[in-house]
Amino acid sequence: MGRATDRRSVLRIDLDATGEGRGRIRRQDTLAAEEPLEIRVGAAGPGRRRPLAVTMRTPGDDLDLAIGFLLTEGLIRSAEDVHTAQLCAGAETPNTYNVVDVVLTPGVPEPVTDPSRNFYTTSSCGVCGKASIESVRTRSRFAVRDDPLTVTAELLAALPDRLRAAQRAFDRTGGLHAAGLFTADGEMVVLREDVGRHNAVDKVIGWATREGRLPLAGHVLLVSGRASFELTQKAWMAGVPLLAAVSAPSTLAVELAEEAGMTLVGFLRGPTMNVYTGTARIGG
Predict the structure, then answer these.
(1) Domain ends where: 114, 136, 158?
(2) Domain that residue 79 falls in
(3) Considering 125, 127, 252, 282, which one is annotated as catalytic?
(4) What does pTM read for this prediction?
(5) First to last CA, the chain
(6) Active site residue 88
(7) How many domains does the chain have?
(8) Rounded to whole angstroms, how far apart are CA atoms 179 and 221?
(9) At 51, which CATH number?
(10) What are the angstrom distances between the C-alpha of 91 and each of 48, 88, 99, 173?
């Protein structure tokens, strides 16, 4: 299986206060791995699975990533829609651990290839692989607006430190995003890391889907970067009532959160935060 990190030789240059070279040292540095993952989907039976998406991701938790992607794109509704999911080899090649084969449960329709939905995504952008915003405004089947979750501002303020303390791969590389799922009491349920923040979220949601935990009512999803339209959409598709980010949200993220009835929190840093939508869920 691919590794989440890799070691490379680098030239470390230190400058003193005057800008003159103080030292040049060859050393080993740990980098976050980034490799393509192809997701293939098909019906049960002898037919071939068709390539559906390619995403640049950090290897690890790839089945969670594939299931989370299918769920948040509205292509499956639950784990029961998936008959099998496995890392697979090519027809004449050994297993590279960069392809996931998903077989749908009989009766579940196969995804229809639509030229307006190009599912090639990079580690920095998931929604950029699609032709229009309207094509990704998939509506969730979960009534997030009715979720009675309430949390205190003090509890929310403590979550970024808990997330950061659990980021083992970030400690080694300094180059990975994280997504963490928390209960209303602030207990971390699961954390996933990836070079792409949308991948980290898909890994969390895929894990929750496979564990039969959907909808994620009464939970908080925290992301280490900004809150984009896509991350807000993914949270809504999983039934998350509160999405928090340590950085800024986008205008579309705020609009979508308002439409969904979600609580969206940005700039969650230390004792301060901005609550953009769903303010009634934040107490104290």
Answers:
(1) 136
(2) 35-136
(3) 125
(4) 0.88
(5) 46
(6) no
(7) 2
(8) 7
(9) 3.10.20.10
(10) 11, 10, 12, 35
